[in-house]
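User: Here's a chain of 223 residues. Predict its fold as tokens.
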Amino acid sequence: MYKRTYIEGETKGATVRLICEVCKIEQKHNVVQSVRRKVEDDYDTALTEYEIVQCLNCDDLSFRKEYTDSNSADYDPEIDEVVYYSVIDVYPSRTAGRFRLKGIQHLPVKVRAAYEELIQALNGGQKILAGLGVRVLIEMICKDKNAEGGNLYKKIDDLVRMGVLAPAGSDILHKLRSMGNDSAHEARPSTSEQLNLAMDVVDNLLDSVYIHPKMAATVFPEK
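Assistant: Prediction complete.
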């Protein structure tokens, strides 16, 4: 059995949060119009929401698409949990034109190489490679700081023990690690929202761990 149906207005009037292209930060958006596509067969049911959304702060309009199906769950062996997901895309893309950090010359060679390729993947719209690149960059940071552990999950926790990372930061890095797992093992593209948030976190981490300490040593030399 195969059946495809379209329903208008199922999410009209709902509120979603996403990064506004004009405001440049996450804002509440109102769904001003929507169409739901439902596809059913003998093995699976898939839903795709096509939505025109409007920023409640600046009134700018965007297009949002959210896909999920009855198989949208994966087991993460590193945390021994089942992780549920949906794929969300926003147009225009929120990752295009991502600028490099100032002071990247202060990054270790391998960390900088991973960061540069991640930026290229983002600006090229290569979402699978970008999601994988986030994980690789985190691994390079752990290796540079000699974090211990049998897997990346434990190494991130060791960064907290070493004082390199705050506990709240480790929670976010674990989410980025999981995103990288999806890209590496399932060839699943990360969403624009996920990649933008991931880069905000990565940029802050690189600033606090490498760039700001180096710049401070130059601006405030020891007497």
